[in-house]
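batch job 7 of whatever, protein = Lipoprotein
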Amino acid sequence: MMGHTDRRALRHGGCAALLTAALLTGTTACGAPDQRRPVTLEEAQRLALARLSVYESGPASVRLSVPAAGTDVGVEAVVDYAARRALGSYRALGRDGRVAWDTAGVSVAPGEHPGTAPRWSRRSYTRDPVDRALRLVLALGSDRPENAQLLAQSGPQWLGEKRLRGHTYTLFAGPRPAARALSGAQPSGPPTSPVTYWIDEKGGLGRVEAVLTGGGDPVTVDFTGRRAPLPPGPWPSPTASTPV
């Protein structure tokens, strides 16, 4: 069975306000200050395509690392962005199990003996960083691109380039949460925001780093580039239609 700390890490967390405000923002964790500069329109177009590329690549395999409660919680999952569902495995404090989540909540099944059916426990999201990270993963895909011109006006920054899994990615700090107005005014609020996007030359998203708590270590979401079907999970059965 799960210990108290790892059960708490997966059973207490989730912030509804994360989905809009934090998803199109940048980070303070990458890129030296003297490297930062506003994005060009071409770079804004790449940034605008990132969430669409994730949506179109699904079901997508992801690897999530969440610093929480003095340990790292690791999750490996398949995410179906069209269905807004994800299912995979977690590991925390040397214990493991299954985890599934959708827009309504999280289901957790402690590690079981091979061949036994998972014993799922369903709950709503809370404000713990693990739940916030799970919701972040779901919200990283969109079935349409952003408006590149508005995006360029709202404060995203170029941070530099890094190599990851044999590919070169450009790192971008996205628009600040207070900069989403359509007035064209200069962004207000803090100079940077808590999410970094790693984007390739075609607009593909390779990694997202997000600081979900002030001054904390970033959550890391890696898109491994593998496509896999979403396994069966503890989803509510669809309501059968009544014959007429």
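notes: Residues 97 and 110 are 4 Å apart (CA to CA).
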